[in-house]
Design brief:
The protein is an all-alpha fold and 461 residues long. It has one domain. The chain is built from 20 helices and two strands. The protein has a two-stranded antiparallel sheet with strand order 1-2. A hairpin with a 2-residue loop joins strand 1 and strand 2. Helix 5 packs parallel to helix 9 and helix 16 packs across helix 17. The longest helix is centred in the N-terminal third of the chain and has 30 residues. The N and C termini lie far apart (54 Å).
């Protein structure tokens, strides 16, 4: 028996990448089993295990795609279980385990620090424990503020009839789903934030857009924000790192570009039928959601084909690295473009933000971008082959899953079992990260080039 256990450990936990993969896989199976149990379902509702697994993977990966209505399927217990899954998936299982170790006083060894660094896309294990603690502090404070503000608003404004307990439940749900960039909600109307848009209730939309933006900007800037606040209380100077400033600038810059392009694409389409206030809210809300969260305040099926393609590109790009969002990550795209610019100018180094970037980072960016395209296009090919539906519908759905966004053109509920498995694989890869997925194939704890072989040139382009 011990030999068998050691064999399993050598297969699933030998490297950092396999450990991360195995942790999320085990958690997904356990979570899906709990959601599948009758105790999680409303009376008279039946849920197939494949759908329960789909929802669990979607929640762990902070996506938002679901083949059934979570409102009509799960009872209060199922809703609370979903909140826990969304929180764990949004923050990260490894990060939460490490936080428990810190609180309990357990010593975190080099092996554990390397796993945490791998999951959080860190360059080094140096300062990793401080990063965990400061990031979690910022996350929990932000979620607490959101819950207080939104629950108070819901009780006062009553977008639908509810008591304070229900308002508190929905606020908790949206706090973890919003920060995790998931897009799940359990509103009775089953129409996401359209319920607020139709009643000209803009406060919940603005509040959630801010939370989603912060959740997608990365844990590193959040950790440094905590250090900044602490320094101000102590009346000490504090300087944000180059990485934090870069993440925020890129995240905000792409948001502004998205808002402008979305407005131009939908100006003569969906925006025509809205009041000026509704149009402004829609133009701000949807571009904020599209790169990582599945909330919506308009019918996505009414978008023009050009808008659907543009939004798909944004979903593929995703949020910042080391964040709750998915996709190839915005720094990957910028690095690839910077590398192309350097190659065109015959420069030996790649520059970003006035800083020279290591070639290893550029290589990783090319790998992530290339593998992302391969995964998405392969998935689209097989689903189109299976489902016999339009290319744009499948294109949008697959990239939404890969980018862990959760927006859909109404296709998720009609997926066959085979297509659901393909979508689940995309969501899972989006959660653990492409680099981790690639490194699963490596059977060695570390790679060392003992011998440098003679190189040959190759014709390309």
């Amino acid at each position: 028996m011990m030999v068998f256990i050691k064999w399993l450990k050598s297969i699933f936990f030998k490297t950092n990448a396999r450990t991360i993969f195995s942790i999320y896989l085990i958690f997904g199976l356990v979570a899906s089993f709990i959601l599948w149990l009758p105790i999680s379902l409303k009376e008279g509702v039946k849920l197939s295990y494949i759908d329960a697994l789909f929802i669990a993977i979607s929640q762990i990966s902070s996506t938002g795609l679901t083949p059934v209505s979570v409102t009509d399927t799960f009872n209060l217990f199922g809703g609370i279980v979903s909140i826990l899954i969304l929180q764990i998936g949004g923050i990260g299982i490894v990060l939460l385990i490490a936080a428990y170790w810190v609180i309990s006083g357990k010593r975190i060894g080099l092996r554990e620090r390397n796993i945490i660094a791998a999951e959080q896309n860190q360059f080094t294990v140096k300062g990793i424990v401080k990063l965990i603690w400061n990031a979690l502090t910022a996350i929990l404070i932000l979620q607490f503020i959101y819950i207080i503000l939104l629950s108070t608003y819901l009780v006062i404004k009553q977008p639908w009839q509810m008591h304070y307990g229900e308002a508190l439940f929905h606020s908790f749900y949206l706090a973890v789903s919003g920060f995790g960039n998931a897009g799940f909600e359990m509103f009775p109307a089953n129409n996401s934030f359209i319920v607020f848009q139709q009643q000209n209730m803009y406060f919940p939309q603005i509040l959630t857009a801010i939370l989603v933006f912060i959740g997608g900007v990365g844990f590193w800037p959040l950790a440094e924000l905590t250090l900044f606040v602490k320094a101000k209380f102590k009346k000490q100077p504090y300087k944000f790192s180059f990485i934090s400033k870069l993440f925020v600038k890129l995240h905000f810059g792409l948001l502004i570009i998205s808002i402008v392009v979305y407005f131009l694409l939908e100006y003569q389409n969906t925006l025509v039928y809205m009041t000026p206030q509704e149009a402004v809210m829609n133009v701000i809300f949807m571009p904020t959601m599209i790169r990582s969260s599945g909330f919506y305040n308009t019918n996505t099926g009414d978008w023009t084909e050009a808008t659907k393609i543009f939004m798909s590109i944004l979903m593929f790009i995703g949020a910042a690295p080391n964040s709750s969002g998915g996709g190839i990550r915005i720094t990957t795209l910028v690095l690839v473009l910077a590398a192309l610019n350097s190659y065109g100018r015959h420069r030996k180094q790649v520059f970003m933000g006035g800083k020279a970037i290591k070639q290893e980072a550029v290589r990783r960016a090319y790998s992530v971008f290339s593998m992302g395209v391969v995964i998405v296009m392969t998935s689209i090919f097989f689903i189109v082959l299976i489902e016999k539906v339009s290319f744009i519908t499948v294109f949008f759905e697959v990239i939404s899953a890969f980018g862990t966004v959760g927006l859909s053109l109404g296709f998720t509920s009609t997926l066959s079992t085979a297509s659901k498995l393909i979508i689940m694989i995309n969501m899972f890869i989006g959660r653990i990260g492409i680099l981790t997925f690639i490194e699963i194939l490596d059977n060695k704890k570390e790679t060392i080039n003992v011998v440098a072989y003679a190189e040959r040139d190759m014709m390309v382009g």
